[in-house]
């Protein structure tokens, strides 16, 4: 349990068995409006994000209704149909990073045009971020040229601090942006085959409000890229730290799906599940948490629990004791889990194939991690890419 002076008391659940059970326990509610009212009755100035209404901040029946509108778009079949699109975006981004590809495109010949071309890049900025955000843009039908704007909003929303001014401004700006695009489509009778069109059709049927459309787009836009951005960065760093595991993976690239599962467990991109509160007293591991208490389920700690995973602090890409909780569980299990794994599998396979020699272009102690309790990810990852 955490309780800082002047702050909100929080109970933290770290053990695998307890976290897994709590993820599916209806006594842990997530309705952010009820949670905000509860927080306001105890502490001033706590912002739980009640300005945004989406699936992760709702309980049944609202959660059921909201998830039903979009769940078909993330079925296994639909996600596999996105593979060519993800592969195309991945190769386009790698071509931009590849000095040899650039020389071939411009048809120049210089003394430095050798088979051992080298490039120094920031993997987060130049590859890990644009890949999933471009995928989400195609999925939702949003302008890809505004991707840096989406990243700014996402960062402000998931790393809210102080008086939350940046958070509130980001929510306002994103809402205005989404509704302006929606209104423009309606005026032009423009209905492309994308998720935003599906959301507008649901509004016409009376299934969604404007606020819920904004919340859905925000969730898909932010959640749809944050996980993959962080996972690609931490996975690359883990491979650099574990050359034996990198060699095992390079020996047979078809092992990548298994490796991605271990990357998810080893350095979970979502290290803390969204805040819950108890609707009645709950016994967790022999400790009773009273009613109306705020609870954090530590996915990252659960995935390193030695009672569940053998040698949990070691990266083992062919690990047999599987069953990580990186995507949560229960009715709130991440809707985009299959897409996130597909993106990571394709991206890492292509990156390792294109650049057989990848080295860190800075000292490890100079790496900066994102300042957020919920996400585990690097701000930057400078790499030297060797062909």
TrEMBL record:
The keyword ATP-binding belongs to this UniProt entry's keyword annotation: no
Highest rank taxon of the organism: Bacteria
A Pfam family it matches: p450
A molecular function (GO) term: iron ion binding
Family classification: Belongs to the cytochrome P450 family.
Name this protein carries in UniProt: Cytochrome P450
Native species: Streptomyces pratensis (strain ATCC 33331 / IAF-45CD)
Keywords, sorted A to Z: Heme, Iron, Metal-binding, Monooxygenase, Oxidoreductase
CDD domains cross-referenced by the UniProt entry: CYP107-like (cd11029)
Lineage: Bacteria, Bacillati, Actinomycetota, Actinomycetes, Kitasatosporales
């Amino acid at each position: 349990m955490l309780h800082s002076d002047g702050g909100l008391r929080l109970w933290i659940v770290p053990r695998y068995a307890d976290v897994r059970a709590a993820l599916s326990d209806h006594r842990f509610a997530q309705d952010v409006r009820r949670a905000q009212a509860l927080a306001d009755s105890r502490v001033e100035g706590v912002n739980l994000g009640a300005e945004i209404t989406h699936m992760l901040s709702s309980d049944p029946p609202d959660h059921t209704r909201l998830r039903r509108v979009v769940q078909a778009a993330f079925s296994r079949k639909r996600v596999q149909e996105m593979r060519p699109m993800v592969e195309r975006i991945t190769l386009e981004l790698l071509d931009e990073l590849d000095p040899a590809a650039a020389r071939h495109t411009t048809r120049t010949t210089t003394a430095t045009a050798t088979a051992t071309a080298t490039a120094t890049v920031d993997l987060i900025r130049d590859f890990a971020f644009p890949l999933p955000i471009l995928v989400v843009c195609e999925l939702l039908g949003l302008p890809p040229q505004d991707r840096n704007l989406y990243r700014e909003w996402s960062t402000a929303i998931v790393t809210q601090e102080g008086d939350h001014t940046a958070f509130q401004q980001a929510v306002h700006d994103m809402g205005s942006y989404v509704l302006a695009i929606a209104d423009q489509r309606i005026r032009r009778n423009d209905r492309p085959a994308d998720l935003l069109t599906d959301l507008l059709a649901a509004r016409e049927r009376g299934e969604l409000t404007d606020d819920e459309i904004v919340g859905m787009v925000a969730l898909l836009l932010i959640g749809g890229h944050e996980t993959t951005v962080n996972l690609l960065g931490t996975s690359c760093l883990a491979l650099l730290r574990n050359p034996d595991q990198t060699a095992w993976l390079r020996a047979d690239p078809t092992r990548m799906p298994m490796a991605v599962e271990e990357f998810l467990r080893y350095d979970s991109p979502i290290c803390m599940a969204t805040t819950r509160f108890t609707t009645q007293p709950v016994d967790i591991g022999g400790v009773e948490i009273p009613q109306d208490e705020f609870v954090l389920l530590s996915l990252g700690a659960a995935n390193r629990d030695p009672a569940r995973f053998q040698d949990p602090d070691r990266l083992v890409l062919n690990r047999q004791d599987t069953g990580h909780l990186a995507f949560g569980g229960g009715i709130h299990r991440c809707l985009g889990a299959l897409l996130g794994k597909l993106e990571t599998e394709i991206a890492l396979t292509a990156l390792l194939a294109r650049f057989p020699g990848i080295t860190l272009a800075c000292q490890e102690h100079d790496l900066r991690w994102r300042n957020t309790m919920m996400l585990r990810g690097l701000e930057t990852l400078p790499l030297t890419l060797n062909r």
